Amino acid sequence: MASQWMKARQTKYAAYAATYILIVIAAVVVANVLADRYNKSYDATANKRYSLSDQTAKIVKGLKQDATITYFNQSTRFRDGKDLLDQYANLSPKVKVKYVDPDKDPELAREAGIRNFGTAVVQIGAKKEEAKSMTEEGITGALIRDLKSNTRTVCFVSGSGEHQLDDSNREGLSKFKDLLAKDNYETKSVDLLTKAEVPSDCTTLVIAGPTKNYEQPEVDAIKKYVEDGGRALFMLDPPLKLGHEEIAENDALTGLLQSWGVTLDKDLILDLNPLGQIAGVGPQVALVTHYESQPIVEQMRGTATGFPLSRSLEVKNTDKTTVQKLFDSSSDSLATSDLTSSELQKLVKDPKNKKGPLTMAAAGTYATGKENVQGRFVVVGSSTWAANRFIDFNGNDDLASNAVNWLSSDEDLISIRPKAPEDRRITMTARQLNWVRGVSQFGLPLVVVVMGVSVWWKRR
């Protein structure tokens, strides 16, 4: 009787079911134990939207001493910051995260100067910095401020028609200023015409598209600054002569750059690559998608940048400088030396045009002769690419940040920042839209009805 019961079909099925249930329970238990012990996650989005950026990963993984992030909030709201802070803790064992309820531990909150719930304080050694916001930028910014022992100031030259630092209009640099603030640079304007000397607190000097000629004392001040170990970013537009606004040739300044191995040609690049039409820009905007191996751009592969009204460069090394090309215009580009005409067809057909690809930017170092001291400079044949109206174009903001980081010897900060959400909308013609509507509203329901009737007919 017992043997028959053991051989019964119901008994076998029950044994199988019990075994499967035990296996599933065991798998769930193991998964929960592992999940509790190892806090891991996977970001399946194409642009890693929910992951920390490479910039943050470099900084956190490079920590030489423990960093403690203390999150102050009500106990019931610790979850608000937990997901973000756990990502930092997962990057390095040197990152410790603490959660403090100011209502339960008011002394600790008062000591840290906490005024609002949802505030994080980052401590490395004896140095503490409050995060400006509970975002990746805020937390990483506090880490950088903890790690940097000195103030870094980016100085923008003014007085000769340059783009203005605090100008929020289309041609201003207020977005560039905000971008630098995220990497914890201070910024200010300097007038070299009033006093021909670069202030000693300038970590990097920026010459952003002057429309007037620099006087020789200004050029001499820039020369002395870089050749003594200073750092400078030159963004110089082609000397266009169109309408009422003319851009000076600035021979004294371009002559200085030529002595360092960078010759700025007096031409205008026109990019006839059809990608420009797809990106919504005209031939006067040179598009770049390929970069050299120099640290400023080596991580930008696959990212497009755009440069309105750009000129070409020629680069070479000198006895004091080493110059590297950063990127070229496309093979579909050309450079015209006619800077007085706005007739596109006339400019394109000019037989004197130079054919692309053409060098558009370069970076160089100057040997000062002093131990562990070198001057650095970056030259770009356009300035509008960093202005408010164009700095948000694809990778332009990355390039601007990377250039300043390299000039300031902050190569550890050079990285591609988190990408904005991808636009994956499908664009259809009216005919395609009607076809999709017809299939979804009539075609698929009709197929279901036909299949139902067919099954009913067979069973009948």
Summarize the helices and strands and which ones pair or pack.
Elements: H1 2-7, H2 9-37, H3 54-61, E1 67-72, H4 79-91, E2 95-100, H5 106-111, E3 119-124, E4 127-130, H6 136-147, E5 153-157, H7 174-182, E6 186-190, E7 204-208, H8 216-227, E8 231-235, E9 241-242, E10 245-246, H9 251-259, E11 262-264, E12 268-271, H10 275-279, E13 285-288, E14 305-308, E15 313-315, E16 321-328, E17 333-336, H11 344-348, E18 354-355, E19 359-367, E20 374-380, H12 396-407, H13 430-459
Parallel strand pairs: 1-2, 5-6, 5-7, 7-8, 8-20
Antiparallel strand pairs: 1-3, 3-4, 9-10, 11-15, 12-17, 13-14, 16-19, 17-18, 19-20
Structural notes for this entry:
With 460 residues, this protein is of the alpha/beta class. It folds into 4 domains: 2-37; 54-147, Glutaredoxin (3-Layer(aba) Sandwich), CATH 3.40.30; 223-413, Rossmann fold (3-Layer(aba) Sandwich); 428-460. It is 34% helix and 20% strand. The chain is built from 13 helices and 20 strands. The protein has a 7-stranded mixed β-sheet with strand order 6-5-7-8-20-19-16, sandwiched between helices. A 4-stranded mixed β-sheet has the order 2-1-3-4, with helices on one face. Strands 12-17-18 form a 3-stranded antiparallel β-sheet, with no helix packed on it. It is flat and about 100 Å long. The model has no long low-confidence stretch (mean pLDDT 87).
